[in-house]
Amino acid sequence: MATEYLSPLDLAFWRMESAGHPMHLGALAVFRSAPGAGPGGGPGSGSGAAEHAAELLTARCAAVPGLRRRIRDVLLPLGAAAWSPDPDFDPARHVFLTRTDRGPHEAAGPLMARPLDPELPPWEAHVLAGPDPESFAVLFKFHHALADGLGALALAAALFDEGQELRPPGRPLPEQRGGSPLGRIPAALAARVREVGQALEIGAAVARAGLPFGVPPALAADPAAAGSRTVAGLALDLDEVNLIRKGAGGTVNDVLIALVAGGLRRWLAGRGDPEPLGAGPRALIPVSRRRGPGGAGDARNRLSGYLLRLPLAEPDPLLRLDRVRVAMDRNKDAGPARGAGAVALLADRVHPLGHRLGGPLVAQAARLLFDILVTSVPLPGLTFSLGGSRVQEVYPLAPLARGQSLAVAVSTYKGTVHYGLVADTSAVPDLAELAGALRAELDSLVREVS
Q1: Domain that holds residue 76
Q2: Where are the alpha helices (DSSP H) in 62-130?
Q3: What is the pLDDT of residues 40-58, one digit of tens each?
Q4: How many CB atoms lie within 10 A of CB 339?
Q5: How many domains does the chain have?
Q6: Which of 74, 77, 114, 232 has the fewest CB atoms within 10 Å around its CB?
Q7: Which runs of consecutive H residues, i.e. helices, occur in 173-316?
């Protein structure tokens, strides 16, 4: 069997890992027990539902090839790593049942802070049986080297009751090439020239983006700080988001980003911080480069990004939204292969040894490029369930880069927008207040367009 090496971008995420800044994605799914189930501890009720969910995840994960593979260094090419089957794969080392008196978000924080075991396939599923006998939650953790947001979604969905209806992640189809090798040389040279030109263009855009300017202190964590994480979630009505979109223009994503800008402004004001001035913090907006309906079938990272300044200094909520819309339109006109936000594409131009030696430096340099991550993970229109218990809420959770204190992820499921907030606990001890500020910003925009 041919060796399957990690792609350059996957390898970059693997080399950026550190004990204090783990590079795994998360998804917190909240389930409600099946209607009509009695309190007697059967598969569809109370703690019995959580136990049944853990049993199903344990049984099903062994049948998903992408969840049985681990990462191993190889001799050649120097610095590279490859996927290999785990000969001792044990679901019990990946699926955990935890009984907790805390809510799912509060329980998820310490688990998000805990790195995955690099000797095992890089994923975990934590079934959280809380005090509510009618519900439970599952925190999925997937290393960014294993999958991007869409790839992680496909891996998790393969474990649900509807998994057989979805295409599981797998290896991409081999590229078909025709003609003689000599006939392909001019095209290869032209492609290399284009790649070099693109890399220079992205590098110049990164340089123009400059060093942090006007970053609120609350978003600038101590680079040496590491360890604790706090998680919060917020559910908003998609109809209200669409009402704002129709009344003020732009896209749903523009509104969701503007809510982050307005929420940050309100949150900082509630802290007693001075009114934000200057250009505002730089938000990195990841952009998927997958194409077609089967794009999620390959779990590998297919990412670029946009970079924009969040207009925190603008006091008018409608003008804030308009400035976000204009900035996003400008990014879209340039395309995801240009601009400072496309820095992820540079990973494909780096030799594996460069990732091996430079991974820690890249991890520390992230704060020089952007101040906050705001990412969106689209969900399919299916109704997900596990052992008959249906998913009610899905909160995506993003990793924190070194020196950054807050990451925002958002998804839409069954007419509800779910914001997942992850923060460095020492820098942001009041994450719940930020969630409240996001809701207040939505209410303000609804009033403006009504």
Answers
A1: 4-165
A2: 104-113
A3: 444 444 468 999 999 999 9
A4: 23
A5: 2
A6: 77
A7: 181-209, 238-248, 252-270
